[in-house]
Structures are given as C-alpha cells and as structure tokens.
Design goal:
The protein is an alpha/beta fold. It contains 16 helices and 13 strands.
C-alpha cells in the first residue's frame, strides 16, 4: 500500500558531509517502510552518490546553483505529485518552500535544519547577507508544514530567531544505518600501521574548515604527545589543509600526524582508534559522533552548539570540553585513553539513532504513524 505514496528528498549534492549521509540513510529508511522514494539533486555529484539504494529514482536537475532549480522543483511537484517533499539545508529549504508555495499541488513540505542558525549567521560574510538570509527564512518557511531540527539545540536556537515558527518545529535526530557502519568497519585497515605504529591512535573526521577547529585538536595533540606515544589521523579535505600542515610543522609534530583527505570508508579507521575527537566550534547534530559510538569507539567532544551534549547524554557516554580549550581537550583525551568506557555501552547508545527509529519519527510527523 505504501508504494502508492511518493517521498521526495531534496539536497543540492551528495558531497561528503553529514547532511548528505542523512539523505542516503533516510532514503533507506523510507524504502524499508515500503514507500517509493525520489532523490532530487541540484547536481548529481559527490562521494555518496554510489551509496544510494538502487530502488531510488534520482532526479538530476543539472544546475550550477540551487536557486536555478526553482522552476524545476515546481514542475516536478506538479507532475509527480509527491505525498511529502523533504528538503535539507537552509538555502535549498528556501527555494523548496517558495516553489511549493506557487505549485498547484498540496504536497506536504518538511524543511530540515542541520546547523545552529545563530552560528551560521555569525559566520556569514556580511551584515547584508545575514539580513537577506533572515528575511528569506522568515518569508519562505511559513509555507512549510513542519520544520525539522536535528537536535534540541538546533530547535531552540531556531525558535529564538523565529518565534513565529515555534509551533512548526519538531526535533528528529539524524538516522544511521548501524549495521552498514559495523560491516564497513571490518574492512582491512592494515595500511594504517604502515604509516603509524603506536598503541594510542587518535582520529577525527570532518571537512578541513574553520568550523571544525582542527588547530585546537593539533595543539592538544602536541600536549598529549609529551605524555604518551600517540598518533593523530584527520580524515577530510578542505581549504584549511595548508594552515593545518603549517601548524603541525611549527609544533614539530608533523611526522606524527596523517591527513589522507576524504576517504570513502572512515569506519575501518575509526574502529581502530583509541579515541575519537570532535573539536568543532559549532554543529547541528554531529553525525560522526554517533557513528563513533556505533563502533564502540571512545569519544571526546567539545561542548559546542549543538548536539554533542545530547548525543553523549551530558558526558555519560564521552567527555565534553570547552570549545577552543587546548589544555582541557588534551587532558580529556589522556583520561579517556587511560580509563575507557565499556564499548558495548556505547554501541547501545547509538541504537536510538537507527534508521528504523528515525524513519518512524518522520512518519509520525508526516501523519503516517
């Protein structure tokens, strides 16, 4: 019966970020519930394209910018008549909401916010751009049936800026294919030891951007190195690579750090870690923390807005430290390595974020519970 209902998931690309991975996992969740799923992309590119389930139909708009898909989304909604249209990331959400407003169909519209809006606005390039973004959100989001925040922190932050949408906001955590994560973690990782031979392996994953604050992690690692024989692996690519490499050289620890760039399968790295570290300045719901827990990996995270405190239950499942505090981060890493939590407890915690549980929550919001 569910095959009569079409779910449309829209995101600009399937690049190597958390939101993109969420779309792939949501598609799996809806398919397992028996629904027909379309994936709509501004441009069909990115490492997660190959991870899409074969049962999904991919609609490639072949556009250079999200804005240029406005009329294409209208045509898609009018022609395909999806029961629900779920858009991800703020700029795509604005375009989706405006397209839905002028389409002929009464498609249900869910807009998913993945980041803390106050931090996004703070890091915007200019006052004018911040003003325009707030105006567009205020105008367009009123056409949504629900606004999905990926954490309570994201929800509270969004409601503070736009209290008129408070009754539309629902918190639904990001979904994870826990079985797939554990399966991929079993792939051969002997190559790690060709680079490093150490009892203590520290790993972090994320785009090499200012948001992830890898300089604080590298400085903390330099302190950790004074206490134990440790190595650091940072998986990801981005514009801050050169600055991070220069910092490692300045601290004299470049030979103990490996940054191989973006990798298709980070899980076989993470499963071998003594500790996984998230050093971000801000997040929405850091997917990589949940993936680490699913592998029974010890975790240390900054207590940033937002998500880590919720995921780690106020520090029960991993240490939380102040954003940008090098000394505290180094101390937490050392303490975690010396006194690890039972991995089985961490895996159990991750199960609350399973694809099945999260897909069920979406269905409740949509009205299919």
């Amino acid at each position: 019966m569910n095959k009569d209902y079409l779910v449309a998931l829209f995101i600009p690309t399937l690049g190597g970020g958390g939101a993109e991975r969420v779309v792939v996992n949501l598609a799996k969740g809806f398919l397992r519930k028996g629904f027909k799923v379309n994936i709509l992309l501004v441009d069909k590119k990115g490492p997660f394209v190959k991870d899409l389930p074969e049962e999904c139909q991919v609609i490639n708009f072949h556009s250079k910018r999200t804005l240029f898909t406005f009329f294409k989304i209208i045509n898609y909604i009018n022609k395909e008549k999806p029961y629900v249209f779920i858009s991800h990331l703020t700029h795509a959400n604005i375009v989706s909401a405006l397209a839905q407003a002028v389409s002929r169909e009464k498609t249900k519209l869910l807009l998913v916010e993945h980041n803390t809006l106050s931090e996004v606005l703070k890091n915007s390039e200019s006052v004018v751009k911040r003003f325009i973004l707030r105006f567009l959100i205020r105008f367009s989001y009123r056409f949504a049936d629900s606004i999905i925040a990926v954490s309570t922190g994201v929800a509270n932050d969004f409601a503070k800026f736009f209290p008129l949408f408070k009754n539309k906001i629902q918190v639904i955590y990001n979904p994870f294919d826990l079985e797939q994560i554990q399966f991929k973690s079993k792939e051969d990782a002997s190559f790690l030891w060709k680079h490093f031979s150490s009892k203590s392996l520290i790993i972090s994953v994320g785009r090499l951007t200012k948001q992830k604050d890898f300089p604080t992690l590298i400085k903390a690692f330099a302190i950790v190195r004074k206490e134990i024989d440790a190595r650091l692996v940072i998986l990801g690519e981005g514009e801050e690579r050169k600055n991070l490499e220069n910092l490692a050289k300045e601290l004299g620890i470049e030979e103990f750090i490996w940054m191989p760039g973006f990798v298709d399968n980070p899980y076989n790295y993470m499963s071998k870690a003594s500790v996984f570290v998230l050093s971000s300045i801000y997040e929405g719901l850091p997917t990589v923390l949940i993936e680490a827990l699913a592998l029974g990996c010890q975790v240390v995270s900054t207590d940033c807005k937002s998500g880590p405190r919720e995921i780690l239950d106020n520090g029960k499942y991993g240490k939380l430290v102040k954003v940008g505090d090098v000394e505290e981060l180094a101390k937490a890493i050392l303490e975690t390595i010396k006194n690890p939590i039972n991995p089985n407890i961490l895996v159990e915690r991750a199960k609350m974020f399973s694809v099945e549980n999260i897909a069920k929550r979406y269905l409740e919001v949509i009205g299919w519970s």
